[in-house]
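Q&A FORM
Asked by: J.P.
Topic: structure of Histidine phosphatase family protein

PROVIDED:
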Amino acid sequence: FDSRLSEKGLAACKELRVGTYKGRAAPPSVQLVLVSPLTRALQTATAVFGCGEAGQPSLVSVEALREFCGKAFQPCDSRRDPKELSADFSHAAFENVPAGPDTLLGPEVVESPESADARIRWLLSWIRARPETNIACVGHMQILTRILTEHMGPAGWDTSEYE
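REPLIED BY: S.T.
REPLY: Here is the structure written out as tokens.
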């Protein structure tokens, strides 16, 4: 199942947006928000960046930012069909999420590290080709850690402020 944020999680997102969450500053102004196609990430991006509101950044969902679970199937990390997601998040674009059911995770399916790395390479290439200069990425712990430590760090990017 594609888990949702709890009420406590939604409240934390709203606090983060205005800079009152645990002493953290409000998020920077961005032109585009890229987001995992998992519901909790879409909820986070929408609440933190105001996506869907007038004057706020566009929201583009990309399969490349979804969680990486290389050891065991975690049902909460399975995504829904983009058609279903579109009904809940009409302000988001889902062109970069394959149609149909989840093929990366399932009871007998666990994604390989090579597959995750291919997703990451696609993502970084896609971002480099974008015209925007300020892009936020909303994803999950394992995939973001892999992006920063396995791909950006070795490429010379400063990842020292990663939280």
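FOLLOW-UP: The longest helix spans residues 113-128.
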